Amino acid sequence: MNDDIKQQQIARINIYALLSRLTMNEVDEGLLKSIEEDENILSFFPTYEKWKKRDEYDRKELIERYLNVDFTNLFLLHLIPYESFYVREDQMMETGGDNPVQAIFNAFEFNVALDKARVMSADHIAIELEFMYELCRAELKAIEDNDMMMATQLAQLQHGFMKDHIVEWAPMFLINVKNEAGTAFYFDLADFVIEFILSDFEYLNQLKENEYKYIA
């Protein structure tokens, strides 16, 4: 397998993992430290990098005073990070078995522990990003095993899920996050997620147009 293709897949896997984690739970000191010390990742947080409060407080204080409060406001209290709220005409959340995203997860045996994840429904943005992470992992394994038929099927599934679900609503939610963010960190995170999902969707579009021939 071409090393460039492998590295691209690994990058996709890592970014989906990071974004799912950051939209699921509050950031902790270890994760924040790893973001600040990785130049590539920190480049996606330009406002946070220059945020004056970083000079005023250590990571623990910054998290407790500002980041945790902002996360709670944005993802738990005031905004609604669920697809069904954005796509249903009545703006009601679909928390039952009729949720189309849950049906997809069931079909692929992707299990979501809602209580552990502190979410009310499987169509939470972090869960949808985690699903893409799992699909990307499976696609990489198929490519490494030279099972290009399976890799193609997984890429097609990613494209369909992005087109029918994530791209349909996540940018709207994330624009709301930007508008409501009380910290530079979550302002930048919203920008990061928007930029990545749109660029990854474009990548999947190009792969489809290329008839799923993996050309680096």
Quick summary:
The chain has twelve helices and no strands. It is an all-alpha fold and 216 residues long. The model has no long low-confidence stretch (mean pLDDT 90).
Q: Could you please describe the fold and organization of this structure?
A:
The protein has 216 residues and is an all-alpha fold. The chain has a single domain (3-209), classed as TorD-like (Orthogonal Bundle), CATH 1.10.3480.10. Helices cover 73% and strands 0% of the residues. It has 12 helices and no strands. The chain has helices at residues 3-24, 29-37, 39-42, 46-49, 53-56, 59-77, 83-87, 100-107, 114-117, 125-144, 148-180, 184-209. α1 (3-24) packs antiparallel against α10 (125-144) and α11 (148-180) runs antiparallel to α12 (184-209). The longest helix has 33 residues, at 148-180. It is globular, with a radius of gyration of 18 Å. The mean pLDDT is 90.
Uncertain segments are none
CATH topology: TorD-like
What's the order of the H and E elements? Answer: HHHHHHHHHHHH
Report the C-alpha radius of gyration, rounded.
18 Å
Mean pLDDT: 90
| Broad structural category | mainly alpha
CATH architecture: Orthogonal Bundle
Helix content: over 70%
% residues in beta strands: under 5%
Oligomer: single chain
Give a short account of the largest sheet: none
Helix tally equals 12
Shape: globular
Say how many strands there are.
0
Roughly how many Å apart are the termini? 10 Å
Q: CATH superfamily, called what?
A: TorD-like
Q: Which CATH first-tier class would you pick?
A: Mainly Alpha
Give the total of domains.
1
